[in-house]
Amino acid sequence: DAKTTQPNSMESNEEEPVHLPCNHSTISGTDYIHWYRQLPSQGPEYVIHGLTSNVNNRMASLAIAEDRKSSTLILHRATLRDAAVYYCILTSGGSNYKLTFGKGTLLTVNP
Amino acid sequence: GAVVSQHPSRVICKSGTSVKIECRSLDFQATTMFWYRQFPKQSLMLMATSNEGSKATYEQGVEKDKFLINHASLTLSTLTVTSAHPEDSSFYICSADRGSSYNEQFFGPGTRLTVL
Asked: Which region holds residue A29: left if phi is over 0, alpha if psi is between -120 and 50, else beta?
């Protein structure tokens, strides 16, 4: 799987937008971009995924660069419950099922 | 929808005993289930991938005789830690894939294993 690079940590204030970056310069044309998050002492939770176009769902938005070498997870209004480790992961779809977790970005949300 | 449960959520055992952890997909059939291990302040490490009715595929460095995986049905997979030792103490997490083209996985809440 292609590798991703994320900042180790980021900080935000409650009710402000948060932009979490992810670099994936070696992404291939068929790789999906996934974001998962893990709250303390819990299993990871799916957040969003995309291939080429920007995506929105009830949790977040995913902005994908035109060359697909980077993406940004956008939390429109951070809450204290959004404090978690956010993982950006690439998968090639098809029969390659594995998710390879890196260190992710620890998001701290200040009240 | 797409809920995965694990049981037990927490277990403490003596060194040398075996511990079984169950992972169930509650509202969907899982084509594939995965087992991960997570040590404190570290990321998840994939241990093995299992498909219903077939032998699990273990990642390099994971002892298959120590971590027995049984995928009995499309909704149940079990991980048995045999002859557990203190170094096996960790957070064990399962996930399930329901076969979508983009490989979304649904994770269980995890099982905290402490071996004394």
From this structure: alpha
